[in-house]
Write a structure and sequence with these properties.
The structure holds 2 protein chains of 2 kinds. By secondary structure, chain A is α+β, with helices and mostly antiparallel strands. Chain A is built from 8 helices and 5 strands. The longest helix of chain A has 17 residues. Chain B has a domain of about 100 residues: CO dehydrogenase flavoprotein, C-terminal domain (Enolase-like, domain 1, 2-Layer Sandwich), CATH 3.30.390. The chains are: A alpha+beta, B alpha+beta. At the A-B interface, strand 4, helix 6 and helix 7 of A face strand 1, helix 2 and helix 6 of B. The complex binds flavin-adenine dinucleotide, iron/sulfur cluster and FE2/S2 (inorganic) cluster (2 copies).
Amino acid sequence: MPNAHDALSSFSVITRRTILSSTAAASAVPLTMTRGQATPNAEPSAAPPLSVDLVVNNRTERLIIDSRTTLLDALREHLNLTGTKKGCDHGQCGACTVHVGGKRVLSCLTLAVSIREPIATIEGLAKQDGSLHPMQQAFIDQDAFQCGYCTPGQIMSAVACVKEGHAGSDAEIREYMSGNLCRCAAYPHIVAAIKQAKSATESG
Amino acid sequence: MRGFEYVRAADPADAIHAARQTSSAPPTLAPTQFLAGGTTLLDLMKLDIMRPTRVVDISGFRNRTDGIAFDRQGLHLGAFVTMAEAADHPDIRRDYPIIAQSLDLAASAQIRNMATLGGNVLQRTRCSYFRDTSWQACNKRSPGSGCAALRGLNRKHAVLGTSENCIATYPGDFAQALVALGADIEIAGPSGARRVKFEDLHVAPDAHPEIETILNPDELITGFAVPAGPWTRRSLYLKVRDRESYEFALASAAVALDLHDGVVNEARIALGGVATKPWRAREAEAALKGRALSEANARQAAEAAFATTKTHGHNDYKPELGRRTLVRALMQAATVEA
Ligand SMILES: Cc1cc2nc3c(=O)[nH]c(=O)nc-3n(C[C@H](O)[C@H](O)[C@H](O)COP(=O)(O)OP(=O)(O)OC[C@H]3O[C@@H](n4cnc5c(N)ncnc54)[C@H](O)[C@@H]3O)c2cc1C
Ligand code: SF4
Ligand code: FES
Ligand code: FES
């Protein structure tokens, strides 16, 4: 898909991830492979690539993608927004949680071409000046993670949980956060973080 | 995931037109699939279990404002309403708690924001042999190949409505509420609309586990009509599972009661997690009619519901778990204010 590479040529940022993958892969593999790579494990498509405009964190991005590209792969592989994590890729862990049209959804079970509403990811949560969202700050203050892999999904889910009005008690928080698994079992601290950030998130 | 042609439908008529079929396969194996919330379809496409060559996107029909309506007849639910919208609706929570609870206790907040009621009732079994193509034998996935679960790990498999060809559990929760309340389902197709009892939508596996419903592949579910009744308020959904949340039922009971001075005028009962399709427990309903709702009578009703089970080793515990689940659900429902 040469078009996809063209569409992405504006991305020249070197991230931790491109360095990691370029040192891990054989040096003959050009760097652009990590960016323009088609959906992992995908067989050649029967259908031609599609053009889609996604509004991500208030920026419109035009992508030329295969119809089967999930929103998760579009964010990570095409837009270099690797804050959103791939845990299971099957709807079972919540690591890939983002907001679409203001609602928390699983980006691994969403086709990028099907999206009609604005998308918000963890990268868009902090203010322009870099100051953290109260929920991000609360996760730090309350020690609400260990390895951090589930954390972007937890935080996106937590912000929505509060805005939905489902953070009324510890039990309610646990129930409405049950779609976000934490392999490090930081659960009690996550509940504490949500309680800390609740009122600031409601008014924010 | 295999490649497919992506078609975005403008409205239900457009979707039906785009889904017109050239093959005679049942909906589960049809080359054209509707994409609603995608939480079943995309999962199974990634696992290479569903392999459509064309996907008709109906996800844009979600979040219409006219999806939930009440009148003297009862409650009407549009098929494109999300699970979260229905679960959070204050009037549904008050007048049809059984529906709100069956949705609240299902999946996760994220999935409930995505998934539609129409897609929900068509979710596929979680049988691990069905979900893993490295097992050759699965009649549901590859008709005629056998059933790996019969002599395999079948702890979560069904004990009611099974056949020698498939013992897969129907995994959903919402369908049990619809069955208990005697809802109808509305279906639109190329030759017009039809309305059938929701209870008749799903079929038991018998000789053809790949046939799961009476739908044709180019038919679209458009809504559900839930009749009003003196039992809808005193109703609940009880779900027993391996973990407290974000897990499918090992056994569940959907119960709606019309009680007068502790005596059962009418009981509506459906069972989940234990059967191959959403299961109406008519024998249990009959056992309770006209009798006091005591624990002993509830137990008798539960015995009647599980009188003819077939177990396969690892799931030998299920009939008793199912009976206890039903007894607890009945006793709890009796305390709900009508
Ligand atoms: C991790 C996980 C946990 C879950 N836990 C639970 C649980 O505890 N309880 C529970 O009940 N469910 C559970 N689910 C299942 C979930 O509720 C279903 O996947 C969801 O409801 C399906 O709806 P959808 O709109 O996403 O369907 P889709 O995936 O879009 O569609 C499913 C199928 O139905 C067809 N279809 C969709 N809409 C229509 C229509 N209107 N007319 C005709 N055909 C249509 C599609 O072509 C497809 O074949 C879980 C799912 C996951 C991934
Ligand atoms: S129980 Fe049904 S779905 Fe599971 S392996 Fe047997 S035939 Fe397949
Ligand atoms: S990666 Fe989406 S739920 Fe696990
Ligand atoms: S912090 Fe490690 S998985 Fe949650």
